[in-house]
Design goal:
alpha/beta; Isoleucyl-tRNA Synthetase, Domain 1; 19 helices; six-stranded parallel β-sheet; four-stranded antiparallel β-sheet
Length: 491
């Protein structure tokens, strides 16, 4: 092996030890729903898994706050922008705390000290590349999406997401030469440099690229959108939402600041986790911006499906909204994490109802995991003279990590519950609680083996159900049965 190859291999190994994962940044919202809970939970699972594999992890989430809707809302509520945003950002943080979300930073695009310098720095890079120009725009604008659309983007003249007719507007804005980067982006997706997961979403964005990208508006007149980041050297314009919002992934790391150590360490992102409704922005506009600024592209974009309820989009008018906070209060945070991890598909739309939630809870947590922990630890407490000393290195859970590294979160959960089923079957067939009364040494060995395997189950649960995993490990260290079941059946 040549010296150069050795150096490249060493650099690759160092880079492989870091893991940077992001959620999309959310619109400030007083009514956080199951979709918010879902995306931060799957990101948390992937982040925790990476930590268990010895990687240096940075987990970013946040809120998108430089929008016209903010001003409309604060005017209706007669509040200041700062008060409103502080209140809503706390709503996110409270939900995250209730779900044990281990994020490292909550970035707010209204942050003038951290985010704004990064957005301005990237804008200037696009200008240096000759990719920003001024032109008059006449077209359709969806206020709900904060997005300009063409007729071909609509269904029956309405926005695909909000099902409302966009406004017809005429403005003079700055535009970004998105069309210039169509072929480069297509090639990078096709050769796997930018991985879009799942394949159906990759094919969707490739079809869009095949039709060709059009230049996009990257600013709005400040008279129309007075809440936002001023365009450098033109105070009459503000940087438009996508050239502002998407930059959060690097501004949060210090891009544009003197201290950019986090950016140097963690960029490019290992995975952006997004919903399918913002695929185009992340798989076309964001890569083009990075190419223009001569920055590395993210390694992968994981596109999750949506959660419906009873076959319909969750809606207050339909009465099918499931509030994550109410479920956490009644069933516990790990019950909600379990359902989102195992019962909701990572890649496709899924249906969730309270009946399905309760059925899964009782079958797989109360009667499954909880019952198994009680049975094994009761046998251990009654029959073992001292706690079993187990080393993490004894466990072979590489298949579990492989599934999570491929974003197969549901299959990783299936693998854990397969092990739970195997342990249950072993107890039923071998009955160590009877054997120990006849042959103490053999029975103790059987029970010790069960405790060891239960510990390995807890190791895997660390990323899925962190609270339950810690409780199980504590019981094993103390050689005690739980005083109350981990999960109490709900009738």
């Amino acid at each position: 092996m040549t010296i150069l190859k050795k150096i490249k291999l060493k650099v690759r190994k160092i880079m492989d030890k870091k893991f940077y994962i992001t959620t999309p940044i959310f619109y400030p919202n007083s009514n956080l729903h199951m979709g918010h809970a879902y995306v931060v939970t799957i990101c948390d699972i992937l982040a925790r898994s990476a930590k268990l594999q010895g990687k240096d992890v940075y987990f970013l989430t946040g809120s998108d706050e430089n929008t016209g809707k903010i001003l409309k809302t604060v005017a209706e509520r007669n509040q200041s922008v700062d008060f409103y945003l502080k209140e809503l950002s706390q709503n996110f943080k409270d939900l995250y705390a209730s779900l044990d979300i281990s994020y490292d930073q909550f970035i707010q695009t209204s942050d003038k000290e951290k985010h704004w310098p990064g957005a301005v720095a990237l804008w200037n890079k696009l200008v240096e590349a000759g990719d920003i120009y001024k032109s008059k725009y006449v077209g359709l604008y969806c206020v709900g999406c904060e997005t300009f659309y063409t007729e071909k983007d609509l269904i029956d003249g309405k926005c695909r997401i909000h099902l409302t007719a966009p406004e017809q507007i005429e403005e003079e804005n700055y535009f970004f030469k998105l069309s210039k980067y169509t072929e480069q982006i297509k090639n990078k997706i096709q050769n796997g440099e930018l991985e879009i997961i799942p394949t159906s979403r990759k094919n969707e964005i490739l079809a869009l690229l095949e039709r060709g990208l059009e230049d996009v508006s990257f600013s709005r007149p400040i008279k129309n959108v007075p809440h936002g980041i001023p365009v450098p050297n033109d105070p009459e314009q503000v940087i438009y939402v996508w050239c502002d919002a998407l930059v959060n992934y690097i501004s949060a790391l210090g891009y544009g600041l003197e201290d950019d150590a986090l950016f140097q360490k963690f960029w490019p992102a290992d995975v952006h986790v997004i919903g399918k409704d913002i695929l185009r922005f992340h798989s076309a506009i964001w890569p083009a911006m990075l190419l223009s600024a001569k920055l590395a592209l993210p390694k992968s974009i994981l596109v999750h499906g949506m959660i419906n309820s009873g076959g319909h989009k969750m809606s207050k008018s339909l009465g099918n909204v499931l509030d994550p906070k109410e479920l956490i209060l009644k069933y516990g945070k790990d019950a909600v994490r379990y359902y989102l991890a195992r019962e909701v598909s990572t890649f496709e739309d899924s249906d969730m109802t309270i009946e399905k939630f309760k059925e899964a809870y009782n079958a797989n947590l109360a009667n499954g995991l909880g019952n198994l922990v009680s049975r094994i630890m009761k046998m251990a407490e009654d029959n073992l003279d001292s706690p079993i000393h187990i080393h993490d290195s004894e466990a072979d859970i590489s298949l579990y990590f492989e599934l999570l590294n491929n974003f197969e979160i549901g299959k990783a959960c299936d693998y854990i519950w397969l092990q739970i089923g195997v342990l249950d079957q072993y107890i039923q067939e071998s009955q160590p609680f009877k054997v120990v009364k006849v042959d103490k040494e053999v029975g103790q060995k059987m029970i010790a083996g069960l405790v060891t395997k239960l510990y390995f189950v807890a190791m895997m649960l660390d990323s899925i159900l962190p609270d339950s995993a810690e409780k199980i490990k504590t019981l094993i260290k103390k050689n005690k049965a739980p005083e109350t079941p981990l999960f109490i059946r709900k009738d």
